[in-house]
Every structure is written in C-alpha cells, then in structure tokens.
Amino acid sequence: MERIIIQGGRRLEGRVSVSGSKNATLPLMAAALLADSPSVITNVPELRDIQTMADVLRSLGAAVSFSANTLTIDPAGFANTEAPYDIVRKMRASIYVMGPMLGRLHRAKVSLPGGCAIGPRPIDLHLKGFEALGARIQLEHGYVIANAESLRGADFNLLGASGSSVGATCNVLMAAVMAEGESVIHGAACEPDVVELIHFLSRMGASIEGAGTSTLRIAGGKALHGVEHRVIADRIEAGTFMTAAAITRSCIVIENAPLHHMEATTAKLAEIGVAIEPADGGVAVRGDTGNFRPTSITTGVYPGFATDMQAQFMALLATVPGTSIIRETIYVDRFMHAAELNRMGANIRVLSGVATVEGVERLSGAPVMASDLRASAALVIAGLAAEGTTIVNRIYHIDRGYEHIERKLRAVGAAIARVSDAEPEPQLPE
After folding, report:
1. Where would a tag sit more exposed on the chain, N or C end, judged by fewer CB atoms within 10 A?
2. Inter-residue contact 101 to 60 (CB < 8 Å)
3. Across the chain, what does the average pLDDT equal?
4. Angle formed by the axes of helices 310-317 and 336-343, to 10°?
5. What is the per-residue pLDDT across 184-214, written as a single tens digit (0 to 9) for each?
6. Residues forming the active site
7. Strand partners, 216
8. pLDDT tens-digit map of 230-245
9. Closest CA to 326 of 293, 348, 304, 303
C-alpha cells in the first residue's frame, strides 16, 4: 500500500497544467466500440480508471493501446457479450459498455458496478432507458442481463429523483444511436461530459440534436466510423488546484483550466474572497487576498455546483472564519471526509445531508484515511495548509482521478511525497 505524506504550511507558487478529463474520457472509450474502424483519443490522463476501462474493453474483444496520453481503440474483435465481475467491480463507469453491447451485439451481461463508497448510486435510469428502446432486462446473481433482437427508437424521460443522470444519459445515448428510427430523450444531463460524448458520436457519423440541453433527438441506425478526438480539460482537477491555492493563501497560475465549464466553482471562490484573474497562458488564482468570507453551497446537476467539488470546498471552508453551510443533494452520504477533516482540527457537524462548517484558525497535520476519490483530494489540500505532517492513507482512490497529483503540487512548492509501506518516511523540507 502507498500513502502520501505532506509537510504543511508552505505557500504555493508557480504554474500547474490541467490534464484531460477522466469523466469525459470514459464514455468516449465505450463509444469507440460502436465504430467499424479504430478511434484515437488524445489528451487522455494516466489514471487507474482509464486502465480499468481499457481492461473492460479488452475483455469484450477490443484491442486497446495507451501511450503518451493517447488511446487507440480497435473494435474489430468486439464480440464478447459479458463484462466480468472481476474487472467491473473496480469502477462504476464500467457500466458504460452496456449501451454499446446492446447497440451492436443485442445482448449484454454486465456485473453490477463498483466504485467509490459514497452511498447508493442505482442504475435504474440506465435500465429504464434500455427498456424504452426495446431491451428485456433481468437481474441474476449480481449481473444485469439485457437482450434485444433489435433496438427501436422511442420517446422517453430519464429524469430521476435527484435530477438528471450523466451516466444514464451517456449509456442510453450510445444505445439509441444504434436503434432504428428516431429517439427523443427528455431529462437528459447537460454536463460537459455528455456534450463531449455527443460531439464524439457526431463526428463518428451519428445524428444527434440538442447537445447541452435537457432534450436530445437522435436519428438512429447510422453506420459509425472511428475518429481522432482530443479530450476536454478536467474541470474538477482545475477546481481542486484552485482550492489548493485558496486554502494555502497562495497564488498559482493554472494552465488549461476550462473556465467556461466551471462557472459555479469560480463564482463560489469569488464569493469566499478568492481572486481569479487572466494570466499569460492561463488563469491566476489568488488566495492571498486576505479577506475570506463564509458561504453556503448546495450541490446540484450541471450547471449547478458539482458534487465532485464538495469535499475540496469543505476543506477550504474549514479554514474560513465564520459559519458555512454545505447541502449535498446528489449523494447525501458523501460526507465521510468530514470526520477525517475533524481529525485535523476542523469543526464540522453533519446531519441529514447538511454539513455545518465553523471556520478554525488553523488545521493540524494528522494521519487520515481517504474514503473516496474526491475525499482524497480534500485531505491532500487540507494537508497543504495544516501545521505539521499529514499522512493520507488509502491513496489508491486518488489515483483513479488525478494524474500525478503529488508531482504537480511539488512543482508549485508543496512539500509532498508518495511512499510505500516498505519505505521509510522521507525528510520533507520544513
């Protein structure tokens, strides 16, 4: 096992570059199965989740190579109708292959997916969409089994109790482009990841109207071909670096930040007192303004405040004087990082999906345990600001979504290192 060790209390300075978006890449990888020729996807981050999805595609018969942030996916051998438990259990996004399997092979047997422990995330909306397109669904022995002699276009709604679903929208969309006739998806998610998938499918030859809106109209049944495509930058990684600058009261320049996808994040940072200014080749994030204020945050579907930024803002608000309120409406159990932040001296109370954060003068370093991907990032940035040494355990979570985070933070002045249990703790600069 590996862990990250941080000597906190250092100001950050310099430039950091944002990698390609993991959440955008994963559905593109699945969509490549729909083509009759290879696709090349560039600007792909080197992450555990990318490797897991590549393993899923290989298990289905596709050829996948990954080098220098470039994926090549050849679907010529795509013929296997079962995605096995041993691979799918590692990552919830593995369910994305179900749409292409139904669309091309007319059968899919996919293990119910795993992923971060942030509360129940059912796939009922995925299955609702597949059934609307004509698939027959069974649940047996931990697997979802779907069959359809042919898919047919349909008019249906994918809106769920917590709003729209990115995963369901992407998955059902990939099946709908292969269905005969027209499909209309109401209640579609509007996130940049969905828009990216629509652009990818459109370049492959699909006919889709309504990108960026809650209603998608698909003229299905068209032959699709492989394309070359560059993935958009990761708005969550960019937001994480912004909170790192804020919590350390530093100024760093972030390159490749997709600000047009981050309005909810940057608006809350400005409300707290962080200055975000244009800079040569990027955006300067100034956490050294000296006048931070508490705020209230409610997570929501895009363009609302992203649930994937909630943990990082909780860490930041733990250091902001006054009382801040965070309401989690997407995954109400996604507050396990609060207890670990409290181990570092934060004052956070959680009740019924609402966290009350009383800002403290300083955090103190401590051994902490990551519960999920974004909680890992929150604990790392808290460690950057804390007095003394912070040890973040179970960092395999962070490797699912951040490309070489310790290297990037070290490049802007953080005293941070990754070590295995067999190695002695490094001597970090004070």
Report:
1. C
2. yes
3. 94
4. 30
5. 999 999 999 999 999 999 999 999 999 999 9
6. 116
7. 185
8. 999 999 999 999 999 9
9. 348
